[in-house]
Amino acid sequence: MSSSHFDLVVIGAGSGGFGAALAAARLGAEVLLVEKSDWLGGNASRCGVNTWEMGVGGTGIPFDLYKRLKKIPQALGVYSLRRHICWDDPTDGPVFPGAEILIDPTKRYLDTLRQFGAPENYSEKVFRQTHWHGVPFEPETYSAEMEAMLAETGHCTVWKNTAFTSLEVEGSQLRSITLDNGQTVTADFYVDSTADILVAQQAGCATSLGQEPRSLHDEPSAPREPTDQLNGATLIYRVSPTDQPGIEPLPDEIPAECWWADRFPVASCNQYPDGGFNINSLPTIAGREVAELGYQAAYAECERRIRAHWHHTQTVFAEFQNYRMTWIAPGLGVRAGPRLVGQYVLTEHDLDDGLTGQTHDDFITISDHSKDTHGADTGAQDPNLKQPYGVPYRCLLPREIDNLAIACRGASFSTVGASSCRLSRAMMQLGQAAGTAAALAKQKQLTSFAALRVSDLQASLTAQHVELTWPRSAELIAYLQDEDG
Fold first, then answer.
1. Contacts with 280 (C-beta within 8 Å, 6 or more apart), sequence order
2. Which of 146, 175, 297, 419 has the most CB atoms in a 10 Å sphere around its CB?
3. Residues 354, 460: one domain?
4. Residue 324 lies in domain
């Protein structure tokens, strides 16, 4: 067994882990990024969730990555909504299996930076077609460019196919991490960006799983009693154009009827730059079912379901007979898991109060995504937000460990808060804040994330073009307009 020391060790190379590692390395910190799979990017790459949904706050590192990908032919685009099952004439029945999301060459990155303000009724389409635009991208290219950006810093070591196994804590300090490659590493600071916040849990940090009762945070959309419900998961598949139209045969062992629900789920059909579609059935499986079956069994069941889903789609919607299934994501797109109970918990009140009503002074990003629970709904009257809200720095910080931050969907959010804040660009921004904080704390010879002055962190994030206020400044707008710079 051997050991090494770094300024920062980041466990998990999803959106948050990438943002943390890149931000810290750019500021000169010596960083180790550990990833258990052979892909960087997590849900957004290996799990096929290859679209940045619309929303404020996607500045800083996400924009840097966008500009690199834009220079690569057919690596990404900006989408607009075309057809939607909610916009069909109900007398004729649905003409599309869900949402048709097409590359729109008239749109630019700035067009992707808003969701809030949509009318409650989803059948309204003018606002959504005017303001809702996102960024679909090629997953493997995306992952490769992440790795290239880290290498270019000269300060980041990346270990793929390497998993966290154990740790050592001394008092309120995390001292070392042991990995399954036989290495034990030490660092001044650590960031947990794993899907199940494994480091935080093993370090003894307080966590939560499932839906909290309404009484805990007085959230209108929370259930009156706690539940074990989790946000639904998805197995995404890709279809590509074919010159031999027809319905692909379904394996004999897979029924043609939907056996897990009363009807086949709707799908978000996101166009790739090459003309194919990313098919995201919403959801493929209940979040709690994944936990009960176990990951491998849940993946196998989801593969059976998406093959039946594709057969149904080709049978009912004839236009899809011009496509063939060409790829199934190697990982499940999981939207919910354990969450930290940290120094501050982001709740539905933050979402509803927005920037004009929140009183925190430690925002490290802003967001405006709706309350979006994918199968774990509790009856929120209007999931859409009226304005952006801020995410406090304290949401990244455990109460128990001073030199650990959480930068992933497992940060300190209530279930309702997480349903809004969990998207890829927001997670990348959490990572950018955590990595920046670690680098600044190291420079100032601090031993605690909380000891860093928030004003210093915010000043550094602002210099990195991270959006912390609304309305958007003229200077930031000008910066974001320069996509080719």
1. 48, 49, 234, 236, 267, 268, 269, 270, 333
2. 146
3. yes
4. 237-328
